[in-house]
Amino acid sequence: MTWDAHHRRTTVLREVLAAAEQRRDETTPDDLLDSVDGARDVFATDVDLLLSLHMTWTQRLSGALDIALGDGTDDPETAVIEAWTRAATAAPTLRRLLDDAEEVPELAAPLAQECVVLARSAGSRGDLLQAGERLRVRGREAVMVEHAHEPHESRGLMARLREALAA
Fold it and tell me: How many domains does the chain divide into?
């Protein structure tokens, strides 16, 4: 990928996130690709967009984990949950888009890798996938508690269903 292609991809990704933030409705990745000029030239499919969004999330999460665990901690599990929560709170639109699309089969491998990273960062042993998923759930719960007192924003269908099932 050339520098120009990389720069264009990054610009379009920012524009897609801005459009999603502005609309805050049940916008699908496919809708977002149609609403941003040139997005279809950069991302051939909604899956391409979702994979790029997940890479952006992974970079944010990695930075938050580095900060949380960098100085050492007596409780790495709590530090990992707090790092996930900080990253999610800093990028709510990104998180909403990924949460709404987590059943997309092409995201299974990146989500599994995220779980393994979380589990290893927390010092988990045994089934890292299960341990990481538990940490992700706890991070989501912490974000929901943090935002429980904020005005309710319009959420995607899948996110609302997950919230209803969790209640």
Answer: 1
